[in-house]
């Protein structure tokens, strides 16, 4: 804090005023006062830096986004207890290795991921060629860059809040409820691509539609057995 020139003390002729007490987490961002009274420079989000998200189920990003790379969805095997529980977008080009050992060392594994949707009517077929049911086809993905500062995935919505921009919408998907391998929930594009000539069921991770179960969820807005939608928004 600055010295006060109007209130002298006996020893120094002037005194300092005590710093204004500010609890951590309640800093005055507008005036640049951090916890304990320290100065802090406040800056608005720089939208020129941009933000990155994954478009699950699509080989490329939308018209207003840059495709950093296209890939396939990978995860742990559906019946394993260990390994990873998230999904990864693995690039199809420029794969690099380092200090490899030939053969399985029986550590952790990365498997491909297949759609497990046995009937039509859920997904748009606009991007699936002649295929109407994506059952057992491998799931593509793309990593997208937008010149905006934040993104959010909202389950059970198909539209974005005011002032947010819709990147895509679709269905919430994950591994089957009674499989050993738990997986996180991801938002899969409602007009997905499929990887051609991959319809054979292989040892893999799976993506199933997610159904609401009211009772534990509020039964007002949520209806048991209804498939949950989702939307990805940026700002």
TrEMBL record:
Superkingdom in the source lineage: Eukaryota
Any one of the GO CC terms: extracellular space
Comp. bias intervals (Polar residues): 1-10
Keywords: Lectin
GO molecular function per UniProt: carbohydrate binding
Spans annotated as Disordered: 1-42
Matches recorded under InterPro entries: Ca-dependent_lectin
PANTHER family with a match to the protein in the record: PULMONARY SURFACTANT-ASSOCIATED PROTEIN A, SHORT-CHAIN COLLAGEN C4-LIKE
Protein name: Uncharacterized protein LOC118421088
Organism: Branchiostoma floridae
